[in-house]
Structures are given as structure tokens and as C-alpha cells.
Specification:
With about 200 residues, the chain is of the alpha+beta class. The chain contains 5 helices and 8 strands. It has helices at about 5-40, 65-70, 75-90, 160-170, 175-190, and strands at about 50-65, 100, 105-110, 115-125, 130-135, 140-145, 155-160, 195-205. An 8-stranded antiparallel barrel has the order 1-2-3-4-5-6-7-8. The longest helix has about 40 residues, at about 5-40. The termini are far apart.
């Protein structure tokens, strides 16, 4: 057999393997990229729903950007905030007995400190914005924070002005001294850390 023919044949086979490998690598790259996007996107699509009953798990906080988190001291700052939030939420009645139920018809009920309230809600899965409206007409806007890999966990986070309004409303059921103490602690936290959202984590029952 002609030596040139053998060489050309070998090169052709090598090219076929090379292109096959590149295509396979591209496929894997696309798959991995898709998974990464799903995790970091913050939107779980059909895999996540707020409908159902949720129980209070722990305090939670979030800085509106990584730069603010780094400036505040990173994870140490987050832990410090959550420790202070534990005291605030305990006084407001956010303990293991606290629950939220979001119904398919757009209504919700919440039980905090043994008191059950109800109202309506709207949830935008694109922006993760949740609005709660009580029967008295009070509105509270929260951001739903969740991970696509953990559909049975979510956090409700409130901006500075909204969390103060929420505390004032719930604090109405407390004595004036306790209410003032809670508001003072929350206010000092918000003044200490810029771009901070405060809230709590929930687990699906």
C-alpha cells in the first residue's frame, strides 16, 4: 500500500477523533454551563413554588452586593447580624411555632406568637418579589431568596424601611418597653450596615 495513502488515512482518522472529542467537550460544557446558570440565576422556575405550609427555621440576612458584604467584614458580619436578629425575632414570636401557609388561590395565613392572621399575596417568580396584604390593608414587600437545589427552603428578606414597618406592626402586640427595645436593636443594625436586608428562613412542611 502506498505510504502516502496510509499517512492520509491516519490523519483523517485522527481528525475525526479530534472533532468528535471537541463536540463531546462542547456538549459537556453546555450541560455544565446550563446547570451553573440554573444555580446562580436565583430563579428555580417550575422546580420552585412558595405554595404550601412553611415553618420558621432561623434568622437570615443578606447584603445587597458582594462588595458591601466584603466591606462589612464578610461572613463574620453576617453571623453577627443573625445573632442579633435571633433576639429580635424571638421577642416578636418567630420561633418553631411560627408558620406561613401560601394557598394556590392567592391567600395566605400566618401564625406568629400564637396569633393567626390572614390576607392575600402576589408572587413574581421572575423578580422573586413577594407582596403580602393583610385584611386590614397593610402591605409588606419581601424578596424571596432560594436555591434551585433546595426547593423546600426559602428566606423572606425585607429592605430597611420595610423591616422596620413589619416590626412596628407585629410589635403592636408586645408591651411598649419590649417593642421599643426591638425597634432600637433593629435600627442600630440597619445603621451599622449599609445595604442590609433582614428576614428569616423557612422550611417547607
Amino acid at each position: 500500500m502506498n505510504r502516502n495513502v496510509i499517512v492520509k488515512g491516519a490523519l483523517l482518522v485522527a481528525l475525526c477523533f479530534a472533532f468528535s472529542g471537541m463536540a463531546q467537550a462542547q456538549d459537556w460544557k453546555s450541560i455544565l454551563s446550563g446547570v451553573a446558570n440554573a444555580i446562580t440565576d436565583g430563579k428555580a422556575g417550575a422546580a420552585f413554588s412558595i405554595e404550601g405550609s412553611w415553618r420558621y427555621a432561623s434568622p437570615d440576612c443578606k447584603f445587597t452586593s458582594d462588595n458591601l458584604l466584603a466591606k462589612a467584614g464578610g461572613e463574620v458580619a453576617s453571623k453577627k447580624v443573625e445573632e442579633k436578629m435571633t433576639d429580635i425575632l424571638d421577642k416578636l414570636g418567630f420561633t418553631e411555632g411560627c408558620t406561613y401557609t401560601f394557598n394556590e388561590d392567592g391567600t395566605y395565613t400566618s401564625t406568629v406568637k400564637g396569633r393567626t392572621t390572614s390576607g392575600t399575596y402576589t408572587y413574581d417568580s421572575e423578580t422573586n418579589e413577594l407582596q403580602l396584604k393583610t385584611k386590614l390593608g397593610l402591605k409588606f414587600n419581601a424578596t424571596v431568596s432560594h436555591n434551585v437545589l433546595e426547593p423546600k427552603k426559602m428566606s423572606l428578606l425585607f429592605k430597611a424601611d420595610k423591616v422596620m414597618s413589619l416590626i412596628q406592626t407585629i410589635g403592636g402586640a408586645l408591651g411598649s418597653n419590649s417593642s421599643n427595645s426591638v425597634l432600637s436593636t433593629a435600627n442600630s443594625l440597619l445603621n451599622e450596615y449599609d445595604g442590609l436586608q433582614l428576614g428569616f428562613a423557612l422550611e417547607k412542611q
